[in-house]
Design a protein that fits this description.
With 405 residues, the chain is an alpha+beta fold. The chain is built from 19 helices and 12 strands. A hairpin with a 2-residue loop joins β1 and β2. The longest helix is centred in the middle third of the chain and has 32 residues. Bound molecules: protoporphyrin IX containing FE. Protoporphyrin IX containing FE binds next to α15 and α19.
Length: 405
């Protein structure tokens, strides 16, 4: 099979369900593999690592998008995210990122350990109530979604009463980040983008009138004081991005983690016994079944190289994080789930200028939640009937039924 056929299969329902065998087929063709449509796939750890850090490889932004994606301007979901840091290059990227990073500090995140622990205990209590009679509980709905949404909404300053509506909205919006979303999915993503933009625009107005100690108030203050640092449109785009990036991915980290533990009873016993550290578990889940499987870049100069391969100026690259994390040149027995690996450094949070702003927060949530969950329910078991979300880029479960006793 050549790279074009592999990419076609990756984009099929079968490839989305289990992309890993296809990554291995691509790896046999080399670390950088032409995949048709003016694109190439990068599958090697060293090459993806290097490409993420190369400033001459840019994200598709508002200026370049027309050349790469027909008809994007008709989709509010795509237009909205194009104004966020995730889809901006220098100098706009640095301008916005430094502002957001200045309010989203390591100190602010570290201070969340106590509230995260309290939120975990609260959710475990609620789950215990629901599953007390031995009936199945959906882990995704009852825990994996609620924890990150609660944490990011607390940080942003989204009132509790408004949070329930975000799961379907963010799930719909995430179609805009997929490589091939169909028109029905895009229509739902567009509606979700418009509703979220309206929501944050109202909330920003409320915070403008009555500032609180939250991230929205801090960003509104900056945007109002000097719109050349952060325009109104950019403010909304980045608030929506923070909300969506803040829980879709972490929800999937928790779900993928629990499913992997069920499939590997030794690892599960290791977490219970304390021989597997929470950080080691988190790293290995990120590596083995990354919640973000790929990202894209385009070259801004001719003659650019990734590893030994020259990338033609008009060729974009898919950086296959999920494949790089299983590169046998970097990891011995990469297919094994081994949370005691040392020096793992998976590429699941990206790298270089766009390195995930929420990495520390996501790690904290996973490290607090997983051991607490296992300690609370000694008889925790899968109840069968788990379903995956039909996505390639954001990989995770839709439902993961469990019994608690
Ligand atoms: C397991 C959880 C998470 C994973 C796997 C993840 C993954 C990623 C990846 C791969 C990127 C880089 C994309 C690229 O280079 O094109 C990224 C960027 C980003 N992430 Fe995360 N993320 C997670 C959690 C979070 C959380 C909790 C937040 C916020 C609270 C967050 C906010 C962001 C933001 C704002 C960016 C854009 C940074 C930029 O473009 O400069 N992420 N994330």
């Amino acid at each position: 099979m050549d790279g074009v056929a592999i990419m076609e299969r990756l984009l099929s329902a079968e490839g989305r369900a289990d992309p890993y065998p296809l990554y291995e087929l691509a790896r046999e063709l080399g670390p950088v593999v032409p995949s048709g449509g003016g694109m190439a796939m990068v599958v090697g750890y060293r090459e993806v690592h290097q490409a993420l850090r190369n400033p001459a490889l840019e994200v598709i932004d508002a200026e370049s998008r027309d050349r790469w994606e027909d008809g994007y301007a008709e989709h509010p979901s795509k237009v909205l995210l194009t104004r966020s840091i995730l889809e901006s290059n220098a100098p706009h990227h640095q301008r916005m990122r430094s502002l957001i990073a200045s309010v989203f500090t390591a100190r602010r995140v570290a201070a969340l350990e106590e509230p995260v622990t309290a939120a975990v205990q609260r959710l475990l209590d609620e789950m215990a109530d629901h599953g007390a009679d031995g009936s199945p509980v959906d882990f995704m709905d009852a825990f994996a979604y609620r924890l990150p949404v609660g944490v990011i909404c607390e940080l942003l300053g989204v009132p509790e009463a408004d949070r329930a509506r975000f799961r379907p909205l963010a799930a719909d919006l995430s179609a805009a980040l997929e490589l091939l979303a169909d028109e029905t999915e895009l229509a739902a993503a567009d509606e979700a983008a418009e509703e979220l933009a309206r929501y944050f625009s109202h909330l920003a107005a409320r915070r403008r009138a009555d500032p609180q100690h939250d991230l929205i108030s801090a960003l509104v203050e900056v945007a109002d004081a000097d719109p050349s640092r952060l325009s109104g449109r950019e403010l909304l785009a980045n608030l929506v991005l923070l909300l969506a990036a803040g829980f879709e991915t972490t929800t999937n980290l928790l779900g993928n983690g629990l499913a992997l533990l069920f499939a590997h009873p030794d690892a599960l016993a290791g977490v219970r016994a304390g021989t597997v550290t929470p950080a080691g578990l988190t790293d290995e889940v990120l590596r083995h079944d990354s919640p973000v499987q790929l990202t894209g870049r385009i070259p801004s100069v001719p003659g650019l190289r990734i590893g030994e391969s020259e990338i033609p100026k008009e060729t974009g690259v898919f950086l296959l994080i999920g494949a790089a994390n299983r590169d046998p040149a970097r990891y011995p027995h990469p297919e094994r789930f081994d949370p005691t690996r040392q020096d793992s450094q998976p590429l699941s949070f990206g790298g270089g200028p766009h390195f995930c702003l929420g990495a520390q927060l996501a790690r904290l949530e996973s490290a607090v939640a997983m051991p607490a969950l296992l300690a609370r329910f000694p008889d925790l078991a899968p109840a069968g009937g788990a379903t995956r979300r039909d996505r390639l880029v954001l990989r995770g479960f839709h439902t993961l039924p469990i019994t608690l006793r």
